[in-house]
Write a structure and sequence with these properties.
The complex is a heterodimer of chains A (about 575) and B (about 260).
Chain A: H1 4-23, H2 38-44, H3 68-71, H4 86-96, E1 102-104, H5 111-118, E2 131-133, H6 138-150, E3 155-158, E4 175-178, E5 185-189, E6 194-198, H7 203-212, H8 229-234, H9 242-245, H10 248-251, E7 252-258, E8 264-267, H11 281-284, E9 293-300, E10 307-315, H12 318-332, E11 336-343, H13 344-354, E12 366-374, H14 377-393, E13 399-402, H15 406-417, H16 419-423, E14 429-435, H17 443-454, E15 466-474, E16 479-486, H18 491-497, H19 500-507, H20 532-545
Parallel strand pairs in A: 2-4, 3-4
Antiparallel strand pairs in A: 1-2, 5-6, 6-9, 7-8, 7-9, 10-12, 10-13, 11-12, 11-15, 14-16, 15-16
Chain B: E1 5-10, E2 13-15, E3 37-39, H1 41-56, E4 61-70, H2 74-84, E5 88-93, H3 106-120, E6 124-128, H4 139-147, E7 150-160, E8 165-172, E9 175-182, E10 185-189, E11 199-200, H5 201-209, E12 212-216, H6 217-220, H7 248-257
Parallel strand pairs in B: 1-4, 1-6, 4-5, 5-12, 6-10, 7-10
Antiparallel strand pairs in B: 2-3, 7-8, 8-9
Helix pairs in contact in B: 2-5, 3-4
Classes of the chains: A alpha+beta (about 575), B alpha/beta (about 260).
Keywords (chain B): Electron transport, Mitochondrion, Transport
Main location (chain B): mitochondrion
GO molecular function, one term (chain B): electron transfer activity
Chain lengths: ~575, ~260
């Protein structure tokens, strides 16, 4: 049986394909560009190992996913939480009614059906859950949580399960509360642009809905075909449009959430201004579900731009990249909607996997992708032309191309958005998502590469665990993705990377998790980015909202594995 | 000695391939205002084919002329054509009377092109096999008829030998067909012919300095009168959405209800 999570992925793929086909006759489905659209790479990204058999990514050595409890023996199950019994399962079945709303591995063997809910798409984490419940309404979420709270059952909330920090999958036998059945769009006001949706709505479907109404979701990321709005908000996902539209802390107007004891917090405000006391909903944005499960979101959506342009540059040094960024800010200012950085090696790896024709003839150590969007195509073109003349004339960029049509825009974007998927081609990827002061942004990649090279871990053959160290990311937000593509997850590599990377970041007052969240992967390292006082204050909030799962001394860190909504988003 | 080529590539400005076209409120045409336009994808292939001929230098290419007939904005696609490698271009301006009324029919375009071929001394015309807006797929053939030249449509491969013979491979149902004609002649292009290049920034800058002539239909004495009248334009009926079932039992019940099992 296909699980719901996979159904969503498949459904999206179909939806995407049909929406392309229906608009144009089939003769235009070119063999190459049609397979290069932004969507197709996005929807396949969070695939599960048993879904496509890894066929899209080609041969992969990381077939078997190790249980998280084996990889990280330091994490202990807190035995104050109860074990699941058949009586518990019966309660959930009676409560949720529909057969498809409960996947029961307690009274029968359902290992295959549970697999996609137990493991993440990076194949790094795997839990032992025996039960998945899919509530269909806020009321059902409330009843499920209340019951779990009273019976001391641990839960892990799950959205599209496209996270990168192991936050959306169980470690032990936590019950997975999957939000995919809560997927209706509750309402949209075209005058104010306020959208109200269920937490389980898929980002891409919501964005299509808005596109028909000339609006745009203020967030865009590679996993849009699978990720849920609830998960986006719970993890405060950043993504490709943050530069233009700002963070979810500003765009989310209201949240409906269920607290661990089952209390429904209805703060689904549609107001832009509401200075009446503490803004509690902000705690849920980026709270990774540790103090409640988000069930509904109201969000402010801007007008969709009529005109979009994409240019792709090759540059000789990181200094030139910074110059280009400054020039883009000053000359394109309000129409600049993305400034993405990709290093030469990341593009080499994409090329190696996809074998697509490169946009530029020569090869450069750095590439940038610039997107502008505005309401008046002529105005934008004029500005962009001046900017391009400037950066070429001043020799800030060495070469570049400008997309002439929508197909080329998508094709250029695929060189940026395709990176995460292509890096996973050889096996596992160590992913670091970091905020670093701009002048030193790329130095970390160089330092890390040098560190791994000096101990002989990087190489072209099977003997070397590391394929390459690459850097890319949202230059406009000072956000670097440091990725280490490996042939297998290897403790020796991990030891060389951690805490080295975190210490490097702490020295520069950066953040060890810019937009991916803490999850399981980063929670032990939160001290590198937050002071003791800040961590104490966070713990107090957790205890206040979730007194039942009060943190035990064994887990001397911020987030417990229990009663925690932890879904996450990649890009 | 092979004859140097003087190539004409007509390009059309159409609604972008990735944009979903919508019918206007009056139901007389497809809505074009405020919609992103780009070069007809098949014409991109034609430009690319012409530029590659020059790059291969055998036979030598004297000149690649791009031409577009339509409203003022057609200059954009001509600039793109020149950024991709066309040497110069002609814009035959047809004032936009709104809602596609001013658009030429294939026969009008073919007559215009025949005049341009004569005036500019062309010996090879490379056209897209069709434009993606009206899908007529007639212009190339009509032009060949008017000029009395040989033609090879839907080319997926083009070779020109030293004795001015053009060999074209075309994809047909169930296989490929190879045809040959002596220059001068007409080629229409199909998707598998090549992968068009991106317009690079240096070439975009250079294209601004290339020659772009403004002409009007009267300069060529072409009768632009339409022979067809568009009566009505309608969107295809919306697809009926499928239903969702809750679980396997629901699916089986539904299939039984529909008599599928």
């Amino acid at each position: 049986m296909a699980t719901t999570c996979l159904k969503n992925v498949l459904f999206n793929r179909r939806l995407t394909a049909s929406s392309i086909k229906s608009s144009r006759p089939s003769y235009l489905l070119r063999p190459c560009p049609a397979a290069q659209t932004r969507w197709s790479s996005a929807t396949t990204e969070p695939r599960q190992p048993d879904a496509d058999g890894g066929t899209k990514g080609g041969p992969s050595t990381q077939r078997y996913i190790k249980y998280t409890s084996e990889s990280y023996p330091g994490i202990k199950r807190d035995n104050k939480f109860g074990k699941l019994s058949k009586a518990h399962v019966k309660f959930f079945k009676d409560l949720l009614g529909a057969q498809s709303a409960v996947i029961d591995g307690v009274s029968q063997d359902a290992t295959d059906d549970l697999e996609p809910f137990n493991s993440d798409w990076m194949r790094k984490y795997k839990g032992h859950t025996k039960l998945v419940v899919k509530p269909g309404s806020t009321d059902e979420v409330s009843k499920v949580l209340k019951y779990c709270n009273n019976n001391m059952l641990a839960v892990v909330p799950q959205g599209g399960n496209s996270g990168l920090v192991g936050g959306s999958v169980p470690v032990y036998d936590e019950i997975v509360i999957n939000m995919s059945r809560m997927n209706s769009i509750r309402g949209f006001d075209e005058v104010s642009g306020t959208l109200v949706v269920d937490a389980g709505c898929i980002l891409e479907i919501v964005d299509h809905f808005l596109a028909e109404r000339n609006h745009i979701f203020p967030l865009d990321l590679g996993a849009k075909g699978s990720c849920h709005i609830g998960g986006n908000v719970a993890t405060n996902a950043g993504g490709l449009r943050l530069l233009r539209y700002g963070s979810l802390h500003g765009n989310v107007l209201g949240i409906e959430a269920v607290l661990p004891d089952g209390t429904v917090m209805d703060d689904l405000s549609k107001l832009r201004k509401n200075n009446t006391g503490y803004d509690i909903k902000q705690l849920f944005i980026g709270g990774e579900g540790t103090i409640g499960i988000i069930t509904g979101v109201s969000i402010l959506c801007p007008q969709r731009s009529k005109a979009a342009n994409v240019a792709f540059f090759g540059l000789e040094s990181f200094d030139k990249v910074q110059e280009a960024f400054r020039a883009a800010k000053s000359q394109l200012s309000e129409i600049l909607s993305a400034f993405e950085l990709m290093d030469g090696q990341s593009q080499d790896l994409v090329h190696a996997v996809t074998a697509k024709k490169r946009p530029l003839e020569g090869q450069y150590p750095f590439y940038c992708l610039i997107e502008t969007s505005g309401s008046n195509p002529d105005h934008d073109s004029e500005k962009l032309e001046k900017f391009l003349e400037h950066v070429m004339g001043e020799e800030i960029v060495s070469d570049g191309v400008l997309a002439q049509d929508e197909t080329q825009i998508q094709s250029l974007w695929s060189w940026r958005e395709g990176i995460p998927e292509c890096l996973g081609h050889w096996g596992g990827v160590y992913k670091y998502d970091l905020s670093i002061p701009l002048p030193e942004l790329y130095k970390l990649v160089e330092d890390t590469r040098e560190r791994l090279t000096s101990v002989g871990l990087i190489g072209d053959d099977e003997k070397h665990p590391v394929v390459g160290v690459v850097g890319y990311g949202h230059m406009g937000d000072s956000n670097l993705h440091l990725n280490v593509a490996t042939r297998r997850f290897d403790t020796e590599v991990e030891k060389k990377l951690e805490p080295f990377v975190y210490e490097w970041i702490a020295k520069r007052n950066g953040s060890i998790s810019a937009e991916h969240g803490l999850g399981l992967a980063k929670k032990a390292f939160v001290g590198y980015s937050r002071s003791e006082t800040m961590i104490r204050l966070m713990k107090q909030i957790k205890d206040l909202y979730d007194p039942v799962s009060r943190i035990t001394p064994l887990l001397d860190c911020l987030m417990t594995n229990y009663t925690a909504e932890r879904y996450h988003e990649p890009i | 000695m092979p004859t140097p080529l003087k190539i004409l590539v007509p390009v059309k400005r159409v609604i972008d391939y990735a944009v979903k076209p919508r019918v206007n409120k009056a139901r007389t045409a497809v809505e074009t205002s405020g919609v992103k336009h780009s070069m007809n994808p098949f014409d991109e292939l034609s430009i690319e084919a012409a530029v590659r001929m020059r790059e291969s230098k055998n036979p030598p290419v004297d000149d690649i002329l791009a031409l577009s007939a339509g409203p003022a904005k057609c200059v954009d696609v001509l600039r793109t054509a020149m950024a991709m490698g066309a040497d110069r271009s002609i814009h035959v301006e047809i004032p936009d009377a709104g809602q596609g009324q001013a658009e030429l029919e294939p026969l009008g375009v073919a007559k215009l092109l025949a005049k341009v071929v004569a005036d500019e001394g062309r010996n090879l015309v490379i056209l897209g096999k069709q434009s993606i807006d009206d899908d007529s797929s007639q212009t190339g053939q009509m032009l060949a008829g008017l000029l009395g030249w040989g033609q090879a449509t839907q080319a997926s491969k083009i070779e020109i030998d030293d004795s001015d013979r053009v060999t074209v491979t075309r994809e047909v149902d169930g296989g490929v067909e190879t045809v040959r004609f002596p220059l001068p002649g007409i080629i229409t292009t199909d998707l598998r012919l090549n992968e068009p290049r991106y317009a690079s920034l240096p070439n975009i800058m250079k294209a601004k300095k290339k020659k772009l002539e403004k002409k009007s239909l009267s300069d060529y004495g072409v009768d632009e009168r339409r022979r067809l009248k568009t009566v009505k334009v309608e969107e295809p009926p919306p697809r009926k959405g499928g239903g969702k079932v809750e679980d396997v039992d629901g699916l089986i019940a539904k299939l039984k209800e529909l008599g599928a099992i």
